[in-house]
Amino acid sequence: xxxxxxxxxxxxxxxxxxxxxxxxxxxxxxxxxxxxxxxxxxxxxxxxxxxxxxxxxxxxxxxxxxxxxxxxxxxxxxxxxxxxxxxxxxxxxxxxxxxxxxxxxxxxxxxxxxxxxxxxxxxxxxxxxxxxxxxxxxxxxxxxxxxxxxxxxxxxxxxxxxxxxxxxxxxxxxxxxxxxxxxxxxxxxxxxxxxxxxxxxxxxxxxxxxxxxxxxxxxxxxxxxxxxx
Length: 229
Fold this sequence. Notes:
- The structure is a single chain.
- The strands form 2 sheets. A 6-stranded mixed beta sheet has the order 1-2-3-4-6-9, sandwiched between helices. It has a 3-stranded mixed beta sheet with strand order 5-7-8.
- The protein is 47% helix and 17% strand.
- It is globular, with a radius of gyration of 16 Å.
- The model has no long low-confidence stretch (mean pLDDT 96).
- It is built from 9 helices and 9 strands.
- The protein has helices spanning 27-41, 70-85, 101-108, 135-143, 145-154, 160-165, 178-190, 194-209, 212-226; strands at residues 3-8, 11-16, 48-53, 90-94, 97-99, 111-115, 119-121, 158-159, 171-173.
- Its EC number is 5.3.3.18.
């Protein structure tokens, strides 16, 4: 199955499971992930959502063998809205390649833990596209205007150390420590007051992001204008 779901001690782990394709997203997988996130948000037993990837990469972006459609973009925008607006904290654990839509998933989380060997890149500019997942609203707030524009305009990769230095990730750990460390962090959050964590997230996002839903709509419109169906 392309998505593995486990629930333990209040932590819902959603694990991308297409290692032979570096967990590249198809429309099917994106829809499955969206449905799982939405179900987790409405489940009172879920206190934390943990996103991870099976194998040597977190996510290599969109699967190039999957036909591009506006439905795929709409699904990514809905997924970003769900993760950012979820009352539960979202932890993202990344290793290997973190590319395109995979990179954008890290922006949608609250705390990202990266393996030391992780590599981050937004390659959309190289194929004449704009990013999705709220990248225009989220990336500058994490790394600053200059760094955000450089990452979007040049499509250059950065390593985990640079990602931590510029505020893109919360922590960097040795590759072999990533799964256990991310689950420990998620369980720590799950032991805190859900109401308090939800209010922290709501207030911080309210101050920093404004109308995030409107930003997603504008971003999708730019994407369609550059590459209509």
